[in-house]
Write a structure and sequence with these properties.
Length: about 210
């Protein structure tokens, strides 16, 4: 009997407007077309009770201390951990739009300590790969002005980008950087190639935790 092959856990990270939502969808469609069982997920997941607080915070309807909202973003990931684990072990590949690295990046950008910011997410399932869509926040402005959400400001996005760069250097064994300023199709092709490599390695890898 064939042992059940687990799914891959692939996370997309990057500042706002790098095209993560488009590229996660395109990768999902590519996987399905190639006969791979896959599912798209996105953090923050705004439908839960915690997700609704996050939503009202992001839309500026509610203010909360930086530490409190940070822990809520992390709790939002924790509340979905069991289902993520079950899906992966059942053989579904998960394509996840943002994860714990956004958690740290957006709070560090507010001036909080990097290690403090990483602590609540330790123990979450570690992604098999992080696809970092990188572009200069200034370039992204040409994609249209920022919206009304709390973090959509150029200065702030620059600070967030620095933290993603730091992760990309520190975690280079599973972080893969892509130039998000190239056109959609080229980017998709590069992402699909890398995803194929990641998927080939999965049978040898058990699920790990963030440390
Ligand atoms: P999105 O739904 O991907 O557009 O994310 C909404 C905003 O929330 C975006 O500006 C990025 C930010 N964000 C995502 N995850 C986290 C997190 O864990 N912590 C903080 N502070 N912000 C986050």
């Amino acid at each position: 009997m064939n042992p059940l092959r687990r799914g891959a856990f692939i996370v997309f990270e990057g500042v706002d407007r790098t095209g993560k939502t488009t590229q996660t969808r395109l990768l999902f469609e590519w996987l399905i077309k190639n006969g791979i069982k896959a599912k798209l997920i996105h953090f923050p997941e705004r439908s839960s009770a915690i997700g609704q607080v996050i939503n009202s915070y992001l839309s500026n309807a509610q203010d909360l201390p930086d530490e409190v909202i940070h822990l809520m973003f992390s709790a939002n990931r924790w509340e979905h951990m069991k289902s993520i684990q079950n899906e992966l072990l059942a053989g579904t590949t998960l394509i996840c739009d943002r994860y714990a690295y956004s958690g740290a990046a957006y709070t560090v950008a507010k001036g909080l300590d990097f290690n403090w910011c990483c602590a609540p997410d330790r123990g979450l399932i570690k992604p098999d790969a992080v696809f970092y869509l990188k572009a200069q926040p200034e370039e992204l402005i040409s994609r249209g002005s920022y919206g009304m959400e709390r973090y959509e400001k150029l200065d702030f996005q620059r600070k967030v980008a620095k933290v993603f760069d730091k992760f990309c250097t520190q975690e280079s064994s599973y972080w893969h950087e892509f130039d998000a300023s190239q056109n959609e199709e080229q980017l998709q092709k590069q992402i699909a190639e890398k995803a194929e490599e990641v998927l080939k390695l999965i049978p040898e890898q058990s699920l790990e935790k963030l440390t």
